[in-house]
Amino acid sequence: MDVARLTREQARRIAVRAQLLDAERPTDLLEVVRQLTLLQLDPTAAVAPSADLVAWSRLGSSYQTSHLKAGLEHHRTLFEFNALIRPIEDLPLYLADADQYPSYPASRAWFEANASFRDDLLARLAADGPLLSKDLPDTSVVPWPSTGWTNNRNVTQMLEFLVLRGEVAIVGRQGRQRVFDVASRAYPADLPTLSSAEAKRLRDERRLRALGIARATGTAVPIEPAVVGDSGVPAVVEGVEGEWRVDPGQLELADEEFRGRTALLSPFDRLVHDRKRALELFDYEYTLEMYKPAAQRRWGYFALPVLHGDRLVGKVDAKADRKAGVFRVEAIHEDVRFTRPIRAAVQAELDDLAAWLGLHAVHVIG
């Protein structure tokens, strides 16, 4: 197979287009999730929960959080699985290896020792579900051993495994608490069954289509791999060592006119989630600093990456102060000197984000 040769600019534009961050905005949440393959659930809401912030950055203020709830709980076009939201048609890609869970020997031993506990939970859900975990009985024979937050949380841990096995589904949320039901009531009955190999191939292809350009192997990224195996077309990027894989559909657009826009991104956004890729293609350094002591932060607790056209140009240290009713911007860090058009575009995005959050003002500190 011929190797595609790309400039850094072409590679960046491929990545931006694939992530639906060019000037042609999508208009539908399901369209967004299908292309991105996932929205990551994270409880941090310094500005807004990441899943909502990612959706807003694509759809703009036409997006409402009720749209996500409707897709998950009413239309069932989306499903929650392993702290990610995905389109329901992708479910077979993640249940192909369901019988292998739990995969670690110690976890497997605990699961098998608690066969009667598993049966009790499934029977209760079948009879009375949907239910919260606190409403389910703990009839475990062997307690879940852990030094972390799951220590002795037997119901929660068993439910986690049953979701991964496709026997239980998360069908909604009450606040931050998940609502569970038997999968047979929640999932479509006519979804195809895939082999493990076929599911992996399709996952790699879907991931590459979402990223546009990625490494075949390499970077370990939390939650979702950033590698795509041998899917797509081999490529090299001018000035960057090593080989990449590029989505064929995006490669066809590499020489077409690119129309970009300005966007404020979640720190968990897929455009920047692989920090090494962001550095190689965008010359952009980023670290999520919420876990660092305040004195050690360079950019802020939940700094929002700033995209302008095909460049990542800065970070915005911001926080939604809901009690005061304002959106506070502590600092705007310029990785490159902002021109007047960039500054105006960033301010417009900040104004739009504040309005979407239902806050009345943007306060810039300092």
Describe this structure in words.
With 366 residues, this protein is of the alpha+beta class. The chain is 34% helix and 19% strand. Strand 9 and strand 10 form a beta hairpin.
Please describe the biggest sheet, giving its number of strands, its sense, and whether it closes into a barrel: 5 strands, mixed
Order of strands side by side in the largest beta sheet?
11-12-13-14-15
Q: Roughly what percent helix?
A: 25-40%
Structural class: alpha+beta
* Number of helices in the DSSP assignment: 13
Report the average pLDDT across residues: 94
Distance between the termini: 55 Å
Low-confidence stretches: none
Categorize the overall geometry. Answer: globular
- The total of beta strands comes to 15
Give the radius of gyration: 22 Å
Strand residues, percent: 15-25%
The topology string of helices and strands comes to EHHEHHEEHHHEHEEHHEEEHEHEEEHE
Structure keywords:
34% helix, 4-stranded mixed β-sheet, 15 strands, alpha+beta
What's the short story on this structure?
The protein has 366 residues and is an alpha+beta fold. It has helices spanning 8-18, 29-36, 50-59, 65-73, 91-95, 105-113, 115-128, 154-164, 183-186, 196-211, 248-251, 275-282, 340-356, and strands spanning 4-6, 39-40, 78-81, 84-87, 131-132, 168-174, 177-182, 213-214, 233-237, 243-246, 262-264, 304-308, 311-321, 326-334, 362-364. Helices cover 34% and strands 19% of the residues.
